[in-house]
Structure formats: structure tokens, C-alpha cells
């Protein structure tokens, strides 16, 4: 599996955060462009019409996504420093927090099939898909692998996706059944990182 390449014109953290916010605003514009349908005739979810749910979701995304991507990008400064698992642990913990917040806001959006379709199209057109998260995490794992700090048998892309999926899964179950039956977020983050089995043998 090919390793995604980072944009060589690397933005500084402030520029990257601004670019992410710009893309979320672009996403909002794409959603509004086709909002000619009558929102009043759409079923309500969580006390809000689909259009209002989209607005709330995008507002949260604009606030939280740049911070989350900054955490992932900052891994690039940790290559060769500390322990790989130790570097990933706070990332996994932050990922759980991020997904809990974002999924909670996203659920009402998906109650309307027409809004869901428009959101998917807007995400695609604004380049806000999942690779925005996968690329920096993959780049970090690949760099640590070249430095001999990650097992040569590890697939950086697959491991990046597994870490993100683990965070997403814990967040989903926490929303579904509550936090009490589950490991704490700190414990879950530790399990997610350990299950990647990154250490060289």
C-alpha cells in the first residue's frame, strides 16, 4: 500500500489552522448552495431541523478540527524523540475526545437522507475527507520506521487508520452505552496504541 505524500509546501501551524477553517467555511457554503428545499417539511432530530443541525455541526467542526489536525501535524516534531508509543498516547486520547464531540453533533445531520447526501458531496468537493487525518499520522509512523524505531513489518498507512478507527470506535460506544461500562478514555487510548504493535522485534 502506497504511503500518502505530504504537501511539500508545508504550512506553518497558524496558516494550516486558517486553511482548515477556510475549508470548513467552504464546506458550509457548498451545503447552503443547495438549501432551497423546505426545511420545515423535513423531520426534526434532537430538537433541531436538519438545516440547523448542519449549522451546529459545521460550527463545531470549524472550532475543533484545526486543533485536532494541529495535534496530528505536531507529531512530525517528535520523530526520533521519546518513545513512539508515548508520543502516540496523547494523540489517541485527543482523538477520542474529538470524535465524541464531533459525532454527537453529527448524528442529527444524518437523520435527513437529503442532507446526508449533500454533506457527503460537500466534504468531497472541499477536500475535507478522512485523508486529512491519515496523512500526518502516516508520515510520522513512516519517519519513525525509517529511523528504526517502528518495526519494518508495520504498514504506516494501515496503522494510522487503525489508530483513528480505535478512537472513533471508543467514542461511538461511549455515546451509545455511556462511559460507565467502558474503559476510561485514558485506558482506551493506551489499549489502542498497544494494539498497533509498532515496536521493532
TrEMBL record:
This is TetR family transcriptional regulator. It comes from Streptosporangium pseudovulgare.
Amino acid at each position: 500500500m502506497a504511503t500518502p505524500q505530504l504537501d511539500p509546501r508545508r504550512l506553518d501551524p497558524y496558516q494550516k489552522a486558517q486553511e482548515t477553517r477556510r475549508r470548513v467555511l467552504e464546506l458550509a457554503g457548498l451545503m447552503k448552495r443547495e438549501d432551497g428545499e423546505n426545511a420545515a417539511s423535513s423531520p426534526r432530530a434532537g430538537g433541531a431541523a436538519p438545516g440547523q443541525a448542519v449549522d451546529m455541526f459545521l460550527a463545531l467542526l470549524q472550532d475543533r478540527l484545526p486543533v485536532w489536525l494541529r495535534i496530528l501535524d505536531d507529531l512530525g516534531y517528535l520523530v526520533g524523540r521519546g518513545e513512539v508509543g508515548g508520543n502516540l498516547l496523547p494523540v489517541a486520547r485527543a482523538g477520542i475526545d474529538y470524535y465524541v464531540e464531533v459525532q454527537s453533533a453529527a448524528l442529527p445531520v444524518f437523520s435527513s437522507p437529503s442532507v446526508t447526501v449533500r454533506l457527503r458531496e460537500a466534504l468531497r468537493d472541499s477536500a475535507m475527507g478522512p485523508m486529512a487525518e491519515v496523512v500526518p499520522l502516516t508520515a510520522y509512523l513512516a519517519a519513525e520506521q525509517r529511523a528504526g524505531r517502528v518495526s519494518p513489518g508495520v504498514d504506516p498507512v494501515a496503522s494510522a487508520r487503525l489508530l483513528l478507527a480505535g478512537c472513533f470506535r471508543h467514542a461511538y460506544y461511549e455515546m451509545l452505552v455511556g462511559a460507565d461500562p467502558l474503559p476510561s478514555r485514558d485506558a482506551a487510548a493506551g489499549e489502542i496504541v498497544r494494539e498497533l504493535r509498532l515496536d521493532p522485534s
